[in-house]
Amino acid sequence: MIQRYPTKKIYVGDVAVGGDAPISIQSMTYSNTHDVAATVAQINRLHFAGADIVRVAVPDMEDALALKSIKEQISLPLVADIHFNYKLALIAAESVDCIRFNPGNISDKTKIKEIVKACQERNLPIRIGVNAGSLEKEFDNKYGPTAEAMVASAEYNIKFLEDLGFDNIKISLKASDVQRTVDAYRMLRPKNHYPFHLGVTEAGTIFHATVKSAIGLGSLLLDGIGDTMRVSITGELEEEINVGRAILKDSGAMPDGLNIISCPTCGRIEADLVSAVAEIEQRTKHITTPLNVSVMGCVVNAIGEAAHADVAIAYGKGKGLVMVKGEVVANLDEKELVDKFVTEVEKMAEESK
User: Fold this and answer.
1) Confidence at 1, pLDDT banded by 50, 70, 90
2) Which domain holds residue 270?
3) Residue 73 backbone dihedrals phi, psi, to 5 degrees
């Protein structure tokens, strides 16, 4: 398990963020927020996909006024995303569980004071959402749209909120490219103890967003940085959750379910490995116990990987072995191996509860 950077624990609704809390996964609806039925439907989709927190855009007063009805119909904590018009945050604060504001387009300190006051009265956290594409002019003019500018903006706004006696804070530092995003988070992390919301913004379609987020968020998670995260994808809502969970799992930040180790395709494979792995993935997707399992297609890879896995198949020509903790428990024809393997995995998962 990765050693995470120690941070202050805050609460977005009933979901803890920071401290020893699990790293939470977020997404954002794309409906017009004032379309209550459509927005609730999308939030419910995210709930069933496994999201922990959901954010909605609040670009106008009609959207802000719809938040009360939305909140009454959902179970996920609700974050209001506020840009330009601080008055929308004051209305939103009456119904939501967190306010995110962008200091690049709400920079008037008298307006930020009003947002802070509304959140203080209701014990709501504030996310200071710094974005490289919309920095305050003083930081953009001094540094350009750089990681240094993002960090300077965050530090300035953190201090402003602290000077108002407010420390129920989380922070995001998002850019559309991986390097600036990672640099900014790494630069700011040692300077405060507030929880970080991770994300590479405007990351593109599912293929590009998956690659960018895996590199950027994965790098930060391996450094122990990050308390909550969103994978930004131009596409279906559920994919953001699926990719986020995979990044947490495969980085080792939050083990969840099976880590399936399988051979790359090559000329040594002595079985229909592609079909076998696909069947195993389908039949074991309900298992949440962290286990390392391997499905090896030839003796070259099987010797080491199968011996060190919790449960393994080592294929030979027309037959193979099922191994548990390196011990052979079955020597079967190829067509029987997957059934035996799944049985052993389910058994170990149940015993590990």
Assistant:
1) low
2) 258-351
3) -110, 5
243 plus 309 within the same structural domain = no
Same domain, 128 and 231: yes
Residues making up the annotated binding site for [4Fe-4S] cluster are: 263, 266, 298, 305
The reply to whether 212 and 321 lie within a common domain is: no
Collect all residues with Cβ–Cβ distance below 8 Å to 267 and sequence separation of at least 6: none
CATH number of the structural domain spanning residue 30: 3.20.20.20
53-90 pLDDT, tens digit per residue, is 999 999 999 999 999 999 999 999 999 999 999 999 99
**For position 152, what pLDDT does the model report?**
97
Annotation: binding site: 263, 266, 298, 305
Q: Which of residues 232, 251, 270 is at a domain's end?
A: 251
